[in-house]
Amino acid sequence: MKFELTILGCNSAIPAFNRFPTAQILQVDRQLYLIDCGEGTQVRLSQFNIRKNKINQIFISHLHGDHIFGLIGLLTSFSLGGREKPLDIFSPKGLQEMIDVQIKHSGSHLSYPLNFHEVDTTVSSLVFEDNLVEVHNIPLIHRVPTSGYLFREKPSALNIRSEKIKELNISVEQIIEIKKGADLKLSDGSIVPNTDLVLPPWQQRGFAFCSDTLYNETVIPIINKVDLLYHETTFLHEKLEQAKYTKHTTALQAGMIAKAAQVGQLITGHYSSRYDDVTPLVEEAQSVFPNTIAGMDGERYEVIQKRNPEL
């Protein structure tokens, strides 16, 4: 089952150097989750051959323009395409008011139900779940209420060892129960433990999105040991005072967060337009956390499915 992140936009504030403002797609199996929706998001969706009608949930970190100015265009395009499926949007307070005003004064009409869900940016909690993932928000520190998002895969059904079905003459009804975790009772009354009947379970993969934020160690226990972490790296550490003033994080600080949280891989992004070449930002983060890669428009980052080691 696929678990893959696609960067649609990695720049901060404005489009520059062929980098669009923040937007990402997380694909889990066949489901697509849109995270932030900066200017040009639907252009990137088309360029990268991502079917926007597969998006049923949108997660917005905060209401600064470089994270939401692509939203009204996307919403109305859905309608022009005849969408009927409901769309859920999760965000800090105020987004519904902004969208309602734009729809009203543009004379637009949506052909589908649009459901807003207000996220409390002061505390981490479960904000959404379906049959594939649970999504918790991550309180961040910025100039307006801001929240990151943690996506964790739900446990998948156990897979029975095919050779055991024939060896022990296991019925369909018994297979169903074994996949739920049951032991097998044989005709002589003996018990075969479930662990002898099934393959080791799949590891639950996770992705954390830490958008605009002042250096914030409170996120560390929330994102602990996540496979993939996107963390903003707006400035080099030589611009620390500017980062503090604008409530952003330096590349060095993002590396420190990744190291402390023992994540699998760090992806940089939200680059200031002062940087044409983002290599120095990536290298600065790598000086603390070597397994760091550059987030760039159009790049895809997959977390390969692995089974837990057998006990």
Using brief descriptors, characterize the structure shown.
2 domains; 25% strand; seven-stranded mixed sheet; Metallo-beta-lactamase, Chain A; alpha/beta; 311 residues
Question: What's the short story on this structure?
Answer:
This protein is of the alpha/beta class and 311 residues long. The protein has helices at 41-47, 65-68, 71-80, 95-105, 162-167, 172-179, 220-223, 240-246, 251-261, 279-286, and strands at residues 3-9, 23-28, 31-37, 55-59, 87-91, 114-118, 126-129, 133-140, 146-153, 184-185, 191-192, 206-210, 228-231, 265-268, 292-294, 300-302.
SSE succession: EEEHEHHEHEEEEHHEEEHEHHEHEE
Q: What general form does the structure show? A: globular
Name the average pLDDT: 95
CATH fold descriptor of the largest domain: Metallo-beta-lactamase, Chain A
Fourth-tier CATH superfamily name of the largest domain: Ribonuclease Z/Hydroxyacylglutathione hydrolase-like
Helix amount, in percent? 10-25%
Give the class-level CATH name of the largest domain. Answer: Alpha Beta
CATH architecture of the largest domain: 4-Layer Sandwich
Radius of gyration: 22 Å
Structural class: alpha/beta
How many extended strands? 16
The main pleated sheet reads as: 7 strands, mixed
The low-pLDDT segments are: none
Strand order of the largest sheet: 6-5-4-3-2-1-16
What's the number of structural domains? 2
Task: Describe what this molecule looks like in 3D.
The chain is α/β, with parallel strands linked by helices. It folds into two domains: about 5-155 and about 200-300, 4-Layer Sandwich (Metallo-beta-lactamase, Chain A); about 160-195, no CATH class. Helix content is about 25%, strand content about 25%. It has ten helices and 16 strands. The protein has helices at about 40-45, 65-70, 70-80, 95-105, 160-165, 170-180, 220-225, 240-245, 250-260, 280-285; strands at about 5-10, 25-30, 30-35, 55-60, 85-90, 115-120, 125-130, 135-140, 145-155, 185, 190, 205-210, 230, 265-270, 290-295, 300. The strands form three sheets. It has a seven-stranded mixed sheet with strand order 6-5-4-3-2-1-16. A seven-stranded mixed sheet has the order 7-8-9-12-13-14-15, covered by helices on one side. The mean pLDDT is about 95.
